[in-house]
Amino acid sequence: xxxxxxxxxxxxxxxxxxxxxxxxxxxxxxxxxxxITAYQIDLExxxxxxxxxxxxxxxxxVSKDMIKAYLQKISDFKPKTIKRxxxxxxxxxxxxxxxxxxxxxxxxxxxxxxxxPYILPTxxxxxxxxxxxxxxxxxxxxxxxxxxYTYKAKTRDIAIIELLFATGVRVSELCQLQWNDIDxxxxxxxxxxxxxxxxxxxxxxxxxxxxxxxxYKQTQPTTSFFTNRLGHEISPQSVRQxxxxxIKELNLSKHITPHTFRHTFATLLLEEDVxxxxxxxxxxxxxxxxxQIYTHVNSNKQKxxxxxxxxxxxxEIKI
Length: 319
Hints:
- A hairpin with a 4-residue loop joins strand 1 and strand 2.
- It contains 14 helices and three strands.
- The protein has two domains: 14-99, DNA polymerase, domain 1 (Orthogonal Bundle), CATH 1.10.150; 126-305, Intergrase catalytic core (hpI Integrase, Chain A).
- Helices cover 56% and strands 4% of the residues.
């Protein structure tokens, strides 16, 4: 097979095409930083594979067989990761095909059938939430100097966990909250979710409003609401470390992450007979199908319904 070089007529370097695609995603489609970062990681991996295995540097040299080999290369990743990498590659080649009429998209006529294993999300019970919150409040009480950074950081940590559970927001949404997104007088937060979809969520607990007001009074944030020691936007990794520390100190056996609070928020609302459409709206899901996973998680609710409603329980057998 003849390999084209960067000097081939009409050919464009993969690296250059990748830069164009990222620019398109960032400035024309206005995708989130998280999505763009995922695209960059996935497509850099594809670019490296094409060069290292086939010495490919130009887009026009990429063939269907090379893509099949790449799919084989990534087949050991988790199904969700594979799905994302395929989506990234497809978006990239579709963009280049749209920009270049003569280019033949190598993903054409490649059938990809993937079935992700159905894994129910981990949820916490109310008592586990209580243990985490009590631990954080007690830890703060140990700090005598209320003007110290440690005390302020512990106030922030309480506010973070309280808000994760109270609103069910994604950790990325929480970290990106700006001060002007939060109205503590009305008790609302404005969240920008996937696809820049905006939603308003009520904070219906005086205790949470109180701790958030206290945090604001201590730190006086001007842009990002939750900040680190340097005053910069707190990172999702920092929130994950906070949750991990709580779980370790409390010796909880479950695998709990910031996203577990989101799962728990939805599941406990469902247990309280909240309409699934309202839960969909609160979570910012574009499709009810995504929200319906919580109908499978809720085994306690299922048991209660069957115990109280199943007609067999009303049938008495007389022998």
